[in-house]
């Protein structure tokens, strides 16, 4: 299930080089240790592995296909492939780790799953997993995101989850994490905090990566079957970094495969508060229980961040990405709101696929890369579908793209 590089990372304390680890109160440390031990047992247990594989196949619809986007390829002069995580049940890659976390919570005898959500994708995926395995579910969500991502809020209610509105600060992802963390601290024994990305204290960056590595493991086989070769480039968007880590993990030893993580440049990469380009502009620091790159304000606190993609506006990033950046194995670049929206319409109109705004960041960068590396092959992780974004996109950008009277 895992390659050699991954087995070596992280170390026992959860470090990827100098990043990762666990910076949390003693009481919570005991709970994290318990989770780490249970996870270690699970990943070696045939019953757990078989059950997860069964759910991936028959519940999620895996393996997700790889699609050769011929119209885009022809137009941009490179061979462009899409890993179709948008076709998963619930519409994105997050279901991959939510099912893993839900099965783990069940094994630990927990009663309730709690989590934060940005775009609502993690909330929906977790509420889905909770319904399936029979657990309660509380989802913390910024009030701004609740207004923007209405269909996902309704889905969570229908699935039986409780959605708790967070009204502090910018009322988006970072504040939702703070609120969920506080709730977890009040009762870490009957609840499991199912973190939504490859972030948080050890073992979450490792565990979420492992659950998401199904993306890369499938893709590595599929692309070789299709083309007889490995891709020259991998491109994935990076919020916390789970879909990117899931794809990259199977290719880390393939030195000829270039890796690109795409962060949101938002409204302006020059202005603090107007982007969330953590790896591009941040510095090492500790927040939410782990060490990684982070965007800091003048007081050294987490900076306010922004992106048109609710799933990408987080002021830190998965510690393994910080490590991959420092050793030069992966490249981290940024795409702004307008470029992402342009790519959103390009994929919709050239290939008949409406992508999530998050995934559109990866797509936008891939199209730039195609021009820089003509004739090369590019595999993009299409992390999710855009159904959740259509009302917002048409209201904000419809006129620019010839959609009138909305
Ligand atoms: C949540 C989300 C992301 C960002 O999360 P990562 O952990 O960086 O993968 C990207 N795409 C979609 C569709 C999402 O829902």
Automatic annotation (TrEMBL):
Pathway: Amino-acid biosynthesis; L-tryptophan biosynthesis; L-tryptophan from chorismate: step 5/5. It is an enzyme of class 4 (lyase). InterPro entries: Trp_synth_b_CS, Trp_synth_beta, Trp_synth_beta/beta-like, TrpB-like_PALP, TrpB-like_PALP_sf. Its cofactor is pyridoxal 5'-phosphate. Signal peptide: none annotated. Its EC number is 4.2.1.20. The keyword Lyase applies. It comes from the Bacteria. Pfam families: PALP (PF00291). Keywords: Amino-acid biosynthesis, Aromatic amino acid biosynthesis, Lyase, Pyridoxal phosphate, Tryptophan biosynthesis. Residues 61-384 form the Tryptophan synthase beta chain-like PALP domain. It catalyses: (1S,2R)-1-C-(indol-3-yl)glycerol 3-phosphate + L-serine = D-glyceraldehyde 3-phosphate + L-tryptophan + H2O. Transmembrane segments: none annotated. The modification N6-(pyridoxal phosphate)lysine is found at residue 94. Tetramer of two alpha and two beta chains. Belongs to the TrpB family. The beta subunit is responsible for the synthesis of L-tryptophan from indole and L-serine. HAMAP family: Trp_synth_beta. This is Tryptophan synthase beta chain. It comes from Ferrimonas pelagia. The gene is trpB_1.
């Amino acid at each position: 299930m895992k390659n050699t590089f991954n087995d070596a990372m992280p170390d026992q304390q959860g470090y990827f080089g100098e990043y990762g680890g666990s910076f949390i109160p003693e009481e919570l440390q005991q709970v994290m240790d318990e989770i780490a031990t249970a996870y270690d047992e699970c990943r070696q247990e045939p019953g757990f592995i078989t059950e997860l594989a069964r759910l991936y196949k028959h519940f999620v619809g895996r393996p997700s296909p790889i699609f050769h986007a011929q119209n885009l390829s022809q137009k941009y002069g490179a061979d462009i492939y899409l890993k179709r995580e948008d076709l998963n049940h619930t519409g994105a890659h997050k279901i991959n780790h939510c099912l893993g976390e839900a099965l783990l919570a069940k094994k630990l005898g927990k009663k309730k799953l709690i989590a934060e959500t940005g775009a609502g994708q993690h909330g929906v995926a977790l509420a889905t997993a909770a319904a399936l395995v029979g657990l309660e579910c509380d989802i913390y969500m910024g009030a701004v995101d609740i207004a923007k991502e209405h269909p996902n809020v309704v889905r969570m209610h229908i699935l039986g989850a409780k959605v708790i509105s967070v009204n502090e600060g910018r009322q988006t992802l970072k504040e939702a994490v703070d609120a969920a963390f506080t709730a977890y601290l009040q009762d870490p024994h009957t609840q499991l905090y199912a973190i939504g990305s490859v972030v948080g204290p050890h073992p979450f960056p490792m565990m979420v990566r492992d659950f998401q590595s199904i993306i890369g493991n499938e893709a590595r086989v599929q692309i070789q079957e299709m083309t007889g070769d490995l891709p020259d480039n991998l491109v994935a968007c990076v919020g916390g970094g789970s879909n990117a880590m899931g794809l990259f993990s199977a290719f880390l030893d393939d030195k000829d495969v270039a890796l690109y993580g795409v962060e949101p440049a938002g409204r302006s990469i020059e202005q603090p508060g107007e982007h969330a380009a953590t790896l591009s502009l941040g510095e090492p620091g500790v927040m939410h229980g782990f060490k990684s790159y982070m965007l800091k304000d003048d007081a050294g606190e987490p900076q306010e961040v922004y992106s048109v993609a609710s799933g990408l506006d987080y002021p830190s990033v998965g510690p393994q990405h910080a490590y991959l950046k420092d050793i030069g194995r992966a490249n981290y670049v940024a795409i702004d709101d307008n470029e992402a929206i342009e790519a959103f319409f390009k994929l919709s109109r050239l290939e008949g696929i409406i992508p999530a705004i998050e995934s559109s960041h990866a797509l936008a960068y891939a199209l730039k890369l195609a021009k820089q590396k003509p004739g090369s092959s590019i595999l993009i992780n299409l992390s999710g579908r855009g159904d959740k974004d259509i009302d917002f996109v048409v209201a904000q950008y419809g006129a620019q793209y010839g959609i009138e009277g909305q």
